[in-house]
Specification:
- The protein has three helices and seven strands, in the order E-H-H-E-E-E-E-H-E-E.
- The mean pLDDT is about 90.
- The longest helix is centred in the first third of the chain and has 29 residues.
- The strands form two sheets. The chain has a five-stranded mixed β-sheet. Strands 1-2 form a two-stranded parallel ribbon.
- The chain has two domains: about 70 residues, Helix Hairpins, CATH 1.10.287.180; about 80 residues, Chitinase A, domain 3.
- The protein is of the alpha/beta class.
- The radius of gyration is 21 Å and the shape is elongated.
């Protein structure tokens, strides 16, 4: 099944994959060096290197799966006045009055701490198809929230 992704998200994941693959030989060397210390039961360097190897290999598999199923959406061709995949949405929080900006992206490229939300997230699902002036309610981990859409920016 294809998974939508922006070009920049695809490129970032591809760069991360290359970096992780370059890390493999260093991890192997660290494991080899730790093996030379003898008793593996009390060898912290060996266990740390093996743990790192497991994390790196798992992330490589995850990225390869994401990239192989990616459907790159050309966000430069977006038109209309409704929130859609690839749109930047500026909202005002009904409770705090704070203005926030979100970019609706694919699930493998989302990074909520940087305002990049997956199109599958509760917030993005509440925003999709809406227009400027609409007030949306959605369930967040902190409870029910209300946001007003103040701007939609398409590429």
């Amino acid at each position: 099944m294809k998974s939508p992704m922006t070009r920049s998200g695809f490129d970032r994941l591809h760069a991360e994959l290359a970096r992780l693959k370059e890390e493999r030989p260093r991890i192997s060397k660290a494991i080899g060096a730790a093996l030379e210390h003898g008793d593996l039961r009390e060898n912290a360097e060996y266990h740390a290197a093996k743990d790192r190897q497991g994390l790196v290999e798992a992330r490589i598999r995850q990225i390869e799966t994401a990239l192989s199923g990616a459907e790159i959406i050309d966000t430069t061709t977006l038109v209309g006045e409704r929130v859609q995949f690839g749109a930047r949405v500026v909202v005002t929080d009904g409770e705090s009055g704070q203005e926030l900006e979100y970019l609706v992206v694919g699930e493998f490229e989302s990074d909520a701490s940087n305002g990049m939300i997956s199109f599958k997230s509760p917030l993005a699902r509440a925003l999709m198809g809406r227009t400027v002036g609409d007030v949306v309610e959605f369930q967040s981990p902190r409870g029910e929230r209300e946001l007003e859409i103040v701007a939609i920016k398409l590429a």
